[in-house]
Write a structure and sequence with these properties.
The chain is 36% helix and 33% strand. It is an alpha+beta fold and 98 residues long. It starts with 5 loop residues before the first strand and ends in a 5-residue tail after the last helix.
């Protein structure tokens, strides 16, 4: 799903994998927001991420995620990313076109 410069991805993870997946997403760098939902679609946590707050936010967020992971067995993670410009995306698909 793409919406004017935004790209969304969904991941389904088990409770014990939640903190590791969020840590991985935080370190990717192009993530704007992470939404953690339970298997019924209820939002447990929304994590807005920006480059300026990345280092400050990571530790407390991961601690909270670890505590939440003990409550529910399955989670859905919705990731909002900054969409790539069309030219960069086209070059990734066919680097020989240039």
């Amino acid at each position: 799903m793409t919406d004017f410069g935004e790209c969304y991805e969904k991941f389904k993870v088990q409770g014990r994998e939640l903190a590791d997946k969020i840590r991985e997403l935080i370190h990717e760098g192009n993530v704007r927001r992470i939404i953690v939902k339970d298997e019924h679609g209820h939002t447990f946590m929304e994590i807005p991420l920006t480059v300026a707050t990345l280092g400050v936010v990571a530790a407390p967020v991961l601690a909270a995620v670890g505590a939440i992971a003990t409550l529910v067995a399955r989670f859905e993670i919705v990731v909002e990313r900054a969409a790539e410009p069309a030219a960069a995306a086209a070059e990734k698909q066919d680097p020989q076109a240039s």
